[in-house]
Every structure is written in C-alpha cells, then in structure tokens.
C-alpha cells in the first residue's frame, strides 16, 4: 500500500505540492475494498450511511464494486475545522431519512483523523438499534487520534499531512481532483477568498 508516490510532473495537478495517492492507486484499492466488504456481508442487504460532503466521491465509486442489495442515506456533520486543524466538537446536522432499526449499517467517511466525527455518528446510530454498525474510511491518519477509534475497512494509511482531492476539501475547494495530495502552501488562505 503506497503511502507516497512520485508522479511525472504532467500528472501532478497544479494545486498540489505532492501526490500521496494516485488515481490508479484509488481505482485498484476500491476494487479490493469492495470485494472485502461484499465478502463480509455475504448476501445481506447493507444500509450505507455516507458522511457528506467529503465521502461523496468515495461512496459513489466504492458502491459500484459491491453487489449486495444496498440502501443509501447521507448524513451531514457541522464543520469544526479551523483551516487545517480540528477545533471544538462536531455536530450532526439534519436527520437520516432511512430507518436503521435491525439493519446492517455501513458508515462511510473520507478520512479518519482525530476520530471525533465517526465516534459521534457511531454513537448516534447505535441508539437507533441497528443489527450491526461497521465503518469504512478511504484514508486513516492513525497518528492523529484524540479519541480511541478504529475503522473496520480502511483504504489507505497516510502520514499526518493535510490532504485534498477525491472528495477532500480545503475551504470547499479541490474536492474534484482525481487524486489525493498535499496542497501547495501558498494556496492556503489566499487573499482572493476573503
Ligand atoms: P475527525 O473528526 O478529526 O476524525 O475528522 C474527520 C473530518 O475532518 C473528515 O471527515 C474531514 O472532513 C476532515 N479532515 C480531516 N483531515 C483532513 C485532511 O487532511 N483534509 C481534508 N479534510 C480533513
Ligand atoms: Mg468530512
């Protein structure tokens, strides 16, 4: 599993200083992750809860590799990030529209960082009495954990660097980059965004 990859200059999006996970790495890993998930659930139906906005691209691509019956819902969490650091407490915004009681729930997020977001949502889901709750994240920055939390399925372990692309944002930008990498430092807080 690559934690860093050096790409030819013409494959490096202009906003990025370096690429940590290439588009090809993502494609290959998602195929395997989808197969692992499908194997674990057997022929059971899965109720997927995606944490938006960050998990939108990952969820859309991953679900194409899972052939179980799937129901899909989304949950939004208030941003508690100040620039590139977590501050305060996350809060769940709005409501789920699907009933989770007696269902096998798979919660999907883009990245596991301090662990606060997923532990909050898992706690909330458990109160709804699902048959099971598992979690799946594309990226895991294990070194940054502030609350104890491990995901059941992880795409890539990455070092403690602030990353963007493939759903991950900086101030809502860069979610559409096809790969994941470190943003150039002069693009953090540019004056034209004020
Ligand atoms: P946690 O609650 O600290 O685990 O943070 C999870 C949330 O913080 C993720 O869903 C992301 O929205 C955001 N986040 C954490 N690290 C990064 C990063 O490197 N880039 C972009 N967003 C991040
Ligand atoms: Mg997020």
Q: Can you walk me through this structure?
A:
With 194 residues, this protein is α/β, with parallel strands linked by helices. It has a single domain, classed as Rossmann fold, CATH 3.40.50.2020. 20% of the residues lie in helices and 29% in strands. It has 3 helices and 11 strands; from the N terminus they run βαβαβββββαββββ. The strands form 3 sheets. A 6-stranded mixed β-sheet has the order 6-3-2-7-8-9, with helices on both faces. Strands 1-11-10 form a 3-stranded antiparallel β-sheet, covered by helices on one side. β4 (81-82) and β5 form a beta hairpin. The chain is globular. It binds inosinic acid and magnesium ion (MG). Inosinic acid is lined by residues 51, 54, 81, 86, 90, 109-117, 162-164, 168.
In short:
It contains 3 helices and 11 strands, in the order βαβαβββββαββββ. It is α/β, with parallel strands linked by helices and 194 residues long.
Helix content: 10-25%
User: Which consecutive residue ranges, at least 5 long each, have pLDDT under 50?
Assistant: none
- Overall, the morphology is globular
Largest sheet: 6 strands, mixed
How many separate domains make up the residues?
1
Order of strands side by side in the largest beta sheet?
6-3-2-7-8-9
Mean of residue pLDDT? 92
Heterogens: inosinic acid, magnesium ion
CATH fold descriptor: Rossmann fold
| Tally of helical segments | 3
**Helix-and-strand structural type:** alpha/beta
Give the C-alpha Rg. 17 Å
